[in-house]
């Protein structure tokens, strides 16, 4: 099964796509694809790129997609839903909150939980990143640059604070990993079944 994460950006931040594979019966995730989309790419073109990837014979019918629905992401989520991608689609609002929730068709997931998920997978050697992936070097730099900082007012910020100050590949990867680790599957009626809720 393949899990795809899409972080949306356009003018200042890149849109990014990450694909991880989970072998049947296994727990280890293999990062199979990383891609930064050029700055300024229109959202319809981003949707077309996602559709192109998901229609590939390797992914078609055996993938799930988690997309950043924060801010301007909500209309792009609508475009992705209308594109009939043939896979599960989870819209995720990345929040500064304390707990994950599900309201009006959107998951709200704390950014620190997304980032911690990637960190735990790497620390426990449950995720492998091939060095020969085109953007593996950029992902590594982003992973090194991710920091948690606290403002004087007590507000916590988590993101890339290094020279490049990008975390788009990390967010795309975190979304893919979050989706891979979920025990959620849509029911026939299209509602989400969330364990414990």
Note the run of SSEs as H and E: EEEHEHEEEHEHEEH
Using DSSP, what is the number of strands? 10
- The unreliable regions are 154-158, 184-197
Average pLDDT figure:
81
Q: What's the N-to-C terminus distance?
A: 25 Å
Give the proportion of residues in helices.
25-40%
The domain count comes to 1
The CATH architecture designation is 2-Layer Sandwich
Task: Note down, in words, how this protein is organized.
The longest helix is centred in the C-terminal third of the chain and has 14 residues, at 168-181. Strand 4, helix 2 (73-82) and strand 5 (88-95) form a beta-alpha-beta unit. The chain has 5 helices and 10 strands; from the N terminus they run E-E-E-H-E-H-E-E-E-H-E-H-E-E-H. It is an alpha/beta fold. It has helices at residues 43-54, 73-82, 111-123, 136-145, 168-181; strands at residues 2-7, 15-22, 29-37, 63-68, 88-95, 101-103, 106-110, 127-129, 146-150, 156-160. Helix content is 30%, strand content 29%. It has one domain: 2-Layer Sandwich (Nucleotidyltransferase, domain 5), CATH 3.30.420. The strands form 2 sheets. An 8-stranded mixed beta sheet has the order 6-7-5-4-1-2-3-8, with helices on both faces. Strands 9-10 form a two-stranded antiparallel sheet. It starts with a strand and ends in a 16-residue tail after the last helix.
């Amino acid at each position: 099964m393949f899990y795809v994460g899409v972080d949306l950006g356009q003018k200042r931040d890149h849109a990014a796509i990450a694909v991880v594979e989970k072998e049947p019966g296994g727990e280890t995730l293999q990062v199979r694809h990383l891609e930064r989309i050029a700055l300024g790419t229109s959202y319809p073109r981003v949707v077309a790129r996602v559709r192109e990837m998901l229609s590939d014979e390797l992914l078609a019918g055996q993938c799930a997609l988690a997309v950043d629905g924060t801010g301007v992401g909500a209309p792009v989520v609508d475009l992705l839903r209308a594109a009939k991608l043939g896979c599960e689609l989870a819209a995720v609002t990345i929040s500064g909150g304390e707990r994950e929730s599900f309201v009006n068709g959107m998951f709200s997931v704390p950014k620190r939980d997304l980032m911690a998920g990637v960190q735990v997978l790497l620390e426990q050697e449950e995720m492998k990143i091939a060095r020969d992936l085109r953007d593996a070097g950029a992902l590594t730099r982003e992973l090194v640059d991710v920091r948690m900082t606290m403002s004087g007012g007590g507000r916590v910020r988590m993101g890339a604070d290094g020279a490049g100050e990008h975390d788009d590949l990390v967010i795309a990867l975190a979304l893919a990993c979050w989706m891979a680790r979920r025990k959620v599957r849509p029911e026939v009626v299209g509602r989400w079944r969330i364990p414990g809720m």
